[in-house]
Amino acid sequence: MACYIGITCGWEEKKNWHKLHDEYVCAVNAVGGVPFLLPSLDSPELVAVYYNQLDGFIFTGGSDLDPHYFGEEPQENLGEITPQRDAFEMALVRLVLAGNKPALGVCRGLQLLNVAAGGTLYQDLKGVSDLMHNQQAPRWYPVHTVQVEQDSRLFRLAGQESFLVNSFHHQAIRQLGQGFRAVAWSKDGLIEAMESTGDKKIMAVQWHPECNWSSDRISLSLFKNLVESAR
Length: 231
Ligand code: MN
Fold this sequence. Notes:
Elements: E1 4-8, E2 10-12, E3 17-19, H1 22-30, E4 34-38, H2 44-53, E5 56-59, H3 83-98, E6 103-106, H4 108-116, E7 121-122, E8 144-148, H5 153-158, E9 162-165, E10 172-173, E11 180-186, E12 191-196, E13 202-205, H6 217-230
Parallel strand pairs: 1-4, 1-5, 5-6, 6-13
Antiparallel strand pairs: 2-3, 7-10, 8-9, 8-11, 11-12, 12-13
The structure holds manganese (II) ion (MN).
Manganese (II) ion is lined by residues 133, 144, 167, 169, 186, 192, 206-207.
């Protein structure tokens, strides 16, 4: 059975175009899913069509979420925000949270899921952690350790309590949203992965498994799990 996976896209305001790292598309394709790129449209009817027609979703990495979504004014080190993308993804993620289809959140995607579930973010990690979460190493190269909760779906996928991940983010989860539990942490205590509680099939990671799915077994397993859950 074909398994249709919707992948949200970035938005570049200056050039008026959508953008997405090919790595996401290749990863979905590699595990037998059929990738669909989702433009940031502002029609609630269209968002519902995407939700109803597709089997699973990837909320991808990218720019910062507008902090008004978690009740804060913008702080000094907030990065670029993309209002059109925020609005579209927020509408889609709310359908995902209300429904039963599986989703994978990556970096911004994890933050988006958390905020849509009522959680909050650190707008910037300066002064919060000294650990380098914005690596200068190549994108595929894992740089910092995560410690995984043993009684979790992530642990069952990874098969180990601790492993290395890549890291390029300057924000992180502050308060966890409802319906999620933290399942992995970096050594500085920040949440690096969360998953839905109960029957929902949502997993989200602060790292970027799309950058090394072809060489990293655990990264690949996250995409495999999404497609298998969607079947
Ligand atoms: Mn990190």
